[in-house]
Every structure is written in C-alpha cells, then in structure tokens.
C-alpha cells in the first residue's frame, strides 16, 4: 500500500506503508543507530515525534519481550529505507510490522532516508505527517505550517502515581519526566530502594520520603516548560545528592541560573563521542535530545562543565561546585548503545555513601 510523508516545507516522499494506517502530525527527526529500534520505538523521549532511522535495514532481529524502555510507546511514526518482514533471531517473538500494528503506530518504508536526513540537517527539524495517497498535499502543508510544536509531552508520559521498586540499598527517589526503564534497571542492579514519583512532585514531598539520593530521569520536550521540576530542584539542591540524565541535566542547569536552547536537528544515536574533561578520556555514548545547555550561560553559576560533545562542542555534563550534584546530557544506561558511561551509576552510589558519612562531596572526580 502506497503512503506518503508530507513535510511542512512542501516536500513529499512516497513509499510503502506498514504498521498502522493512523495519520499523525509529528516532529520528523533522525536517529543514526545501527541497532536498537525496539528501544527507540519505546523511548518516551520520542513522544510526538516521527523518527527516521538512517540504517537502511530495520527489523531483521524482530521484537522481543525484554528490550522495551516503556510499557506503551508514544512515538508518532517510524520511517525506514527497508523493513524486514521475516526476522531471524533466537529472541524474536514477532516482526516489527506486527508491533506497529498492535501499538497503532504508522510506518513508512521505501523512501530515500538519506535525502530526508540531509534535509533535516540542512533546514532543521520539520513537522510532518504520514498520509494516504488521496489527501490534498497543499491542505496538509498548510495544516502543518499552522500547527504548533507539541507541548505537555512530559505530562503525557510521566507516571500518574508514585510506586516502589524495592531494594535493600540506598533509597533513591527517581523523578519520572519520561524515564527509560534502563535507568530504573541500573539502580535496581545496584540494590537501590527506588521510589518512582511523577514529574510534578514537590521538593517537600520528596524530602519527606527521606531519600539518600535523587535521580532526575530523561524525558521529551522543552525543559523550560517543566517549571514544576525546576522549582523542585531548587528546593532539594544541596540537601540530597542528585544525579540528572538528559532532560534532568537541562532542568538542573535551568534551576542553577543557566539557559537552554533548541538544537537545529538534535543528537539522536548510539555512537556520539563525548570527552570527559576530568579524565581526558573519550566515551562513545547513546544520545537522544533536541535541546542543549548554552555554554556561555554557565558563567556566574555554580556549575562547571565536566563533559563536552566532540562533534559540536556542546555541553554534555555538569557538576555543582558546592553541592553533591552532577548531570549528563547523554544516556549512561545506554539501551540501545555502548555502556562506556555506565560507571556514572557507580559514581552516584559513591556520592550517596560519601555524603551520608561526611555531608559533602565537593571534590570527587568523575572517573571510571
């Protein structure tokens, strides 16, 4: 069945539809990972986005029960060069086409994904829609141009109620801005006693739980819109050790007086090199973000840069110079991607242990 992708600038790509026949508007972005499509499809940070995968063959190892990063995906569409209809892998349970049908996610295959990626790199993120062939293209373009960028994504993907993931180690409050399950997995692997709370939980409520540490998870959208999270961070900073990932990283920067801005086309993939400025070592990281902390806005704050992206020099990690708090823009839990930065979870455990003993950890270095 022929379907088409229509972009807000009037560009049309015609290909083969698969998955659901539903039509949704979304921000068209691209991911450069060779594998990990199941984790990408289920990552809440892709809420309301249509994702183009630059690797040409997708779905060859199928879908399995173990690699989901959320229970219900919130992605608005998937675009590939070719999808595999008959996967072959010992863990495969069903093909990607069936998964997209089950989850009501539209897909488009058979288009020039290289051309689409180059367009996004040149013009920036564009709004788009995967449509049937009988729509009026001019009407869809007009609709896309008038459509506002999606808002309230964090509210959509965050848990509505707090829930525990019990352990016998340090008590950690994990704030769910749209967290990947991989973050929770890494904490439970370290025997942490985790309480997952909604994005709008107040500082008073978190402190009343008497945690040893606070984890700020990833999530979608513009960090400046998450005013509840910014105010909460201001209320807990310096009182409890804190670790922020991706959106959590950006929220800490905003809470400390820095600024964020939208990237032209974002960082999305499992092969992004990041330099640890405290060790001079390079880590290959998994990333998924459309906003970044403005380097120049850090002047005059109590934050120091610990990591930078080698591709474009943007901020990839921060450390508070007075309080036990640190953040990274990328995903140390990977899923998908390399686990070069997995040591940061161990660093967080050490930070909680040291802070519990002496009350501060200002001089600790982010080392492997």
UniProtKB/TrEMBL annotation:
EC number: 6.3.5.5
Residue positions binding L-glutamine: 45, 219, 221, 247, 250, 288, 290-291
Pfam families: CPSase_sm_chain, GATase
Boundaries of every Carbamoyl-phosphate synthase small subunit N-terminal domain copy: 1-131
Residues spanning the signal sequence: none
One Gene Ontology biological process: L-arginine biosynthetic process
Major enzyme class: ligase
CDD domains listed in its UniProt record: GATase1_CPSase
Record pathway: Pyrimidine metabolism; UMP biosynthesis via de novo pathway; (S)-dihydroorotate from bicarbonate: step 1/3; Amino-acid biosynthesis; L-arginine biosynthesis; carbamoyl phosphate from bicarbonate: step 1/1
Keywords: Amino-acid biosynthesis, Arginine biosynthesis, ATP-binding, Glutamine amidotransferase, Ligase, Nucleotide-binding, Pyrimidine biosynthesis
Catalytic residues of the enzyme: 246, 331, 333
Listed SUPFAM superfamilies: Carbamoyl phosphate synthetase, small subunit N-terminal domain (SSF52021), Class I glutamine amidotransferase-like (SSF52317)
Keyword Plastid: no
UniProt catalytic activity: hydrogencarbonate + L-glutamine + 2 ATP + H2O = carbamoyl phosphate + L-glutamate + 2 ADP + phosphate + 2 H(+); L-glutamine + H2O = L-glutamate + NH4(+)
Quaternary data: Composed of two chains; the small (or glutamine) chain promotes the hydrolysis of glutamine to ammonia, which is used by the large (or ammonia) chain to synthesize carbamoyl phosphate. Tetramer of heterodimers (alpha,beta)4.
NCBIfam families, sorted: CPSaseIIsmall, PRK12838.1
Similarity field: Belongs to the CarA family.
Protein name: Carbamoyl phosphate synthase small chain
Protein species of origin: Neobacillus bataviensis
């Amino acid at each position: 069945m022929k379907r088409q992708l229509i972009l807000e600038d009037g560009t049309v790509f015609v290909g083969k539809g698969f998955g659901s026949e539903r039509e949704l508007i979304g921000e068209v972005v691209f991911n450069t990972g060779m594998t990990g499509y199941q984790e990408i499809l289920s990552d809440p940070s892709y809420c309301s986005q249509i994702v183009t995968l630059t690797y040409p063959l997708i779905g060859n190892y199928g879908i399995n029960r173990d690699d989901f990063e959320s229970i219900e995906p919130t992605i608005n569409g998937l675009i590939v060069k070719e999808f595999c209809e008959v996967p072959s892998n010992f863990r495969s349970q069903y093909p990607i086409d069936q998964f997209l049908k089950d989850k009501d996610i539209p897909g488009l295959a058979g288009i020039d994904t290289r051309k689409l990626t180059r367009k996004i790199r040149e013009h920036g993120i564009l709004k788009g829609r995967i449509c049937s062939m009988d729509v009026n293209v001019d009407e869809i373009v007009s609709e896309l141009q008038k459509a506002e960028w999606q808002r309230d994504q964090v509210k959509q993907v965050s848990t509505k109620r707090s829930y525990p993931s019990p352990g016998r180690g340090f008590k950690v409050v994990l704030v769910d801005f749209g967290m990947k399950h991989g973050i929770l997995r890494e904490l439970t692997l370290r025997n942490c006693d985790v309480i997952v709370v909604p994005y709008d939980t107040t500082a008073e409520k978190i402190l009343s739980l008497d945690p040893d540490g606070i984890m700020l998870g990833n999530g979608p959208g513009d960090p400046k819109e998450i005013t509840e999270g910014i105010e909460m961070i201001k209320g807990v900073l310096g009182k409890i050790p804190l670790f922020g990932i991706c959106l959590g990283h950006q929220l800490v920067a905003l809470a400390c007086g820095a600024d964020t801005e939208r990237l032209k086309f974002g960082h999305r993939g499992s092969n992004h090199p990041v330099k640890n400025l405290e060790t001079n070592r390079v880590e290959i990281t998994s990333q998924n973000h459309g906003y970044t902390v403005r380097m120049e806005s850090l002047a005059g704050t109590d934050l120091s840069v610990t990591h930078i992206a080698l591709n474009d020099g943007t901020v990839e990690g921060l450390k508070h110079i007075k309080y036990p708090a640190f953040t990274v823009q990328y995903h140390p839990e990977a899923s998908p991607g390399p686990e070069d930065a997995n040591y940061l979870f161990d660093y967080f455990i050490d930070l909680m242990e040291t802070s519990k003993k002496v009350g501060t950890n200002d001089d600790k270095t982010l080392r492997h």
